[in-house]
Amino acid sequence: MTAQPPDATLPGAGGQPTSSTGLLLSAIVVSGVTTFMFYPLITLELLDRGIGAGATGAVLGLLSGTGQILSGLIGRVNARLGSRALAVGGLALRSVGLLAFAIDGNTLVYAAGAVVASIGSSSTALALKTELMRASADRRTITMRSIAVNIGALVGPSIGGLVFVAASFSVIVLSVVISYVVLGLGLFFVTFQPPEEGAPPAGRAAARSGPGFDKPFLVLLGCTLAYWGIYSQWALVVPVYAERGFGTPLGSTWVYTGNAILILVVQYPLLVGLLKGVRSPHILATGFLVFGGAFLVLPIPAGPGAVIAFATLFSLAELLISPTLDEVTARLRSEGPGLTRAYGTTATVGGVSSLAGSSAGGALIEHLGTPGSVLWLVLPVAALGFSGSAVLSRRKVDS
């Protein structure tokens, strides 16, 4: 299948995959497996340990959002030190932070661990993403990266569920930490490109200029904010809604597994094949509409059918929006070392939105007593994302 041609309204993002692309994708798979071993179960574990729904939402927000909020700074460090240092250092921080969840602590301990783990996770993720996108930023490569993440999301919950039943959540955390140590050692055998700010003088000038906050990029940031505000509800809604619908706390691992399978089966043929001629802003707009449809399911009393309907629609929206945001970012900043800082900036906006969205969603669930209460947050945010996509579709984005 041929590579996706550039969007008529966006500058092309060229580049060819390097010999390290496969190794980097493999590292993303391993990282995804370990992350999703514990993530589907952490909400229920914290609730079982006596942490309230509001505090749990705040901890989850810190876990997913802190590193993203700091990604603008992380991007600067990445541009200066290079992706290898950030990837390995991030794994070390992630390991230290996650150890807090191996013990029966309090909200403050979990919040501190979440902050450290999140910074480490964002450092590693940004380093691996930037290294891939510097080589090739077309829709095919971006979709392959998403597939790598979701292979981990498919395998991880099953392994985590088995370990949870056979041992405990603490054993899951310790297993994850060991895997991060092994992965960090393995990254020393991967060839990384030189740091972006080690480029010739013209490249350094481009790096100092930062991502550039022109109107199209600001609109893209609005879409990014909307996406992460909605996506942050997944970890809150699924454990509670799936447990009610399936009658078992393992229902969330089934939903996470189904989410990964759907994305793995559908994403590449849909984005790279069926929708290869569709402009990226139109794909974003469709995704936000589907998000709205997904959350309109939640007021329905929880049952297997309702849970499956919600998870299916949510997954379709996710697979449409997530790689497309990366694609548009790469096309807006395809030239020079501004790409690293552009991804750092979008990640920062996503982190702020994740933290605010998770905290607000947890508060709504705690006060109104039902997962469907997050609908009051999601629908306005989805409208924001749809509007931003419409603006991008009307504007000529210059290189």
Kindly describe this structure.
- With 399 residues, the chain is mostly helical.
- 76% of the residues lie in helices and 0% in strands.
- It has helices spanning 21-48, 53-69, 71-81, 83-98, 107-135, 139-166, 169-186, 201-208, 215-231, 234-246, 251-274, 280-295, 304-332, 338-368, 375-394.
- α6 crosses α13 (304-332).
- The chain is globular, with a radius of gyration of 20 Å.
- The model is unreliable at 1-15 and 199-209 (pLDDT under 50).
Tags for this model:
disordered N terminus; mainly alpha; 399 residues; 76% helix
Give the secondary structure arrangement, pairings included:
Blueprint: H1 21-48, H2 53-69, H3 71-81, H4 83-98, H5 107-135, H6 139-166, H7 169-186, H8 201-208, H9 215-231, H10 234-246, H11 251-274, H12 280-295, H13 304-332, H14 338-368, H15 375-394
Helix pairs in contact: 1-5, 1-6, 1-7, 1-10, 2-5, 2-14, 3-4, 3-5, 3-14, 4-5, 4-7, 5-14, 6-11, 6-13, 9-13, 9-14, 9-15, 10-11, 10-13, 11-13, 12-13, 12-15
